Amino acid sequence: MEELFFKSAKELSQMLAKKSISSLELTQIFIQRIQNVDSKVKAFLSLDEEKSLQQAKASDERRSKGQTLSPLDGIPIGMKDIIAEKGQSLTCGSKILEHYISPYDATVTEHLHQAGAVLLGRLNLDEFAMGSSTETSAYQKTCNPWNLEYVPGGSSGGSAAAVCSGEVPLALGSDTGGSIRQPAACCGIAGLKTTYGLVSRYGLPALTSSTDQIGPFAHNVTDLGLLLKVIVGYDDRDSTSCEVEIPDYSQILKDEYKPCRIGIPKEYFAEGIDVEVQQTIETTIEFYRKSNYQIVDISLPHTPYAIPVYYIVMTAEASSNLARYDGIRYTHRSSEASNAMDVYFKSRQEGFGAEVKRRIMLGTYVLSSDHQDAYYVRAQKVRTRICEDFAKAFQDVDVILSPTAPTTAFKFGEKLNNPLQMYLSDVCTVAISLAGLPGLSIPCGFSQAGLPIGLQLIGKAFHEHELLSVAYQFEKAHDFAQRFPKLN
Ligand code: GLN
Fold this sequence. Notes:
16 helices; globular; single chain; binds glutamine; 11 strands; Amidase signature (AS) enzymes
């Protein structure tokens, strides 16, 4: 029973099916685990024990009547505190939403309820998902479970750290430029950024509307597929939701093993990539080569522009999206304000942290009438080139392979005062977000210092099943998905 909290969702689901454990017992075990380790990891912003236990009891009742809703019925899951859950906090990691309680469920939350999952608590993130270390959260600094002196990555650092430390078997995060993949890599777990339009964004407060996506975190690829199956689907409440045929992601892994063509983009192995990361990824490429995959050298020539383009588009959209936090409607309102303008200025001044303010200013600048053509419009043109690079590459290959992040996790404070250094953490992930493509990260090795290294697989739009299947071949030949940090 002791190591139950490191079991995969699939294994737990089988235990529930065999009635060797109840959802109530399982939920209690995870709550106990959170109580034991979260004072160190600090992944959770809040935990609603009573509600979770009720959901677990309801799941057990359904099971006793033979009315189980899905393989995830009765399985605990954690939610990044930027995905709306009725009656729960939705701080987005910001003081400006400190007392805000969501009046409605996000579409993904509804899907989880329909699947019978037990929603355990709310997980920490960088303020408004801006960051790569979870250090910009207004509430607490989440630690990397592999070494508590290191960051867990970000912005979904709470979700990644919670799964990694066995506080919850599954979690949801959001990814705008790397926020699922990079923390998954830093924490040595599996994470998937879905194709833009596959998962509804309804109930995900907008940061960068043209790239934001919700996606799963799990201990392994099979579990990613299980959770993905539950959250996907067309939603008329999200105007960017796509109506596409959904493959059975859990079936894919059972399908006959089909090697395919894997592209290696030379620009992702350029300057700035840590030597240990580079060597580990090269070993991974060798694995695929030996496993009869065709390895093809490719070029994505506009890659060097991905970071500047992302930080123009991202800040432009964020400055506009964050205008709604004005102290008038549902946000923090300054008690110092004496007139209407004061309410706007002071509430935002007090409510937002430094990184959010920096991006609002940058975004306002690049959208200003004098500079729009030079920055925003030009960035959108280069973005089109980035998309074309991928389209061209995917004529010759099925999947693209790269490191997820240029380095392993870094220490607290190392990059916080150097925004450019922090932004470079996303050098391997942002282009994929700009192009709306799916990207998956799994652990593929460890550094000398004992920190995980992530492998990124990039797919054609709506080809998540292919990413899962290629990742699965690597995962089942290695033990990285069964390595867990010691926290005691
Ligand atoms: N780290 C990137 C940023 O700060 C990506 C964040 C995200 O994906 N939400 O913008």
